[in-house]
Amino acid sequence: MSQEIHTGGCQCGAIRFRVEGALGDASVCHCRMCQKAFGSFYAPLVSLRDAKLVWTRGEPKKFQSSNAAARGFCADCGTPLTYEAPDGVAIAIGAFDVPANIVPKIQWGVEAELPYARDIPHLPRHGTLEDPNAVPFLQSLVSYQHPDHDTDVWPPK
User: How far is the C-alpha of 137 from the C-alpha of 157, rounded, in Å?
Assistant: First the structure.
């Protein structure tokens, strides 16, 4: 039986990682510290439990966000990557190459949940190219984001 392998990294590709073994619990944290660390409504994280984290390219810079926790991020592009506490390491779900398979099962820090966060799923939904006025601009974009897989030809020349 083969061991689970999960890969991921930051937006610019300066940092890449591999997780060897089964991931732990996936969650969403609404606490104010997580909101600030992710610049978002909440932080989606998955714990590593007994899985092994290997940095395959670069390593995150750390910010000691409290007396008990540090947060790892890419110093080049700012992508939030880790939450590191005495009980273990968690990785940002969006930093994985295949985040759709990592489903949060619980929410924490709900006392700080932004009042409109629950209503977001009920907002009107549109595809990126549905605004005809934006199509020419959007089609002219060239992404410099690292692809969702490891490659030896990064960054682009």
Answer: 23
